[in-house]
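Entry for 3-methyl-2-oxobutanoic acid complex. Fields follow.
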Amino acid sequence: MISFKNVRKITTHVLQEMKLKGEKIAMLTAYDFSMAKILDNTGIDIILVGDSASNVMAGHETTLPITLDQMIYHAASVVRAVDRALVVVDLPFGTYQGDSKEALISAIRIMKESGASAVKLEGGSEIAESVERILSAGIPVMGHLGLTPQSIYKFGTYSVRATTEKEAEALKKDALLLEKAGCFGIVLEKIPAKLAAEVSASLKIPTIGIGAGSGVDGQVLVLHDVLGINQEFSPRFLRRYHNLFAEISGAVNNYIHDVKNEDFPNEREQY
Ligand code: KIV
């Protein structure tokens, strides 16, 4: 298999080639310069400036409160750190759903003020006009189907989506609609693995799964969950690769101990 590890810059075309060649796409979230710098150095393919920043950075219960200005602040910080990865930014709740002209203005602000390479929108047929309008301005769009956290109050739970035949058919139709409109990829969140594999096989554009099994073209997780910074969130689909909560707590406890015991700073650590 050809490896895309040495590609200088990941573009939407590179992602398309990765799907064609069968190389899985690795995507993680980041919201600030320092973390984005680490991620980009690892060779991650896509960095998502997700509206999950509302939860993990700002402490809100849902993704709804984060504003366009706040997303632009996070996205610009990430873009300043990144040389290789494709930076995709979530359009936050209330900036694209009702009015396609407003959707285009929101997407243009993200592209102009952050320097990101693409935007992501949640939903299918109900936001088709917004997707088309943004694409017509030459802005790459990523779709997001299945569990769409911005609609949490419509559904009331974060349970698995598209479990009935009717919902599965609607999701398949939406995926085809987004591909036809010109989206370069689609995030499939928390849907049955069999359905996700079927959708992925039916599309030419890559699908990126979160809680959608292994039959998709790539995977995405929230960085704070992967690193174990966030301890409260433990869904079945999450694999934690580190316990940074414990590591940071240990380091800070050592610092407190050294300060209290007048061990820090020592002779060599002062002027
Ligand atoms: O906001 C986010 O982090 C996301 C991912 C969970 C896909 O949309």
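NOTE: Strands lie at 25-29, 46-49, 86-90, 118-120, 141-146, 185-189, 207-210, 218-221.
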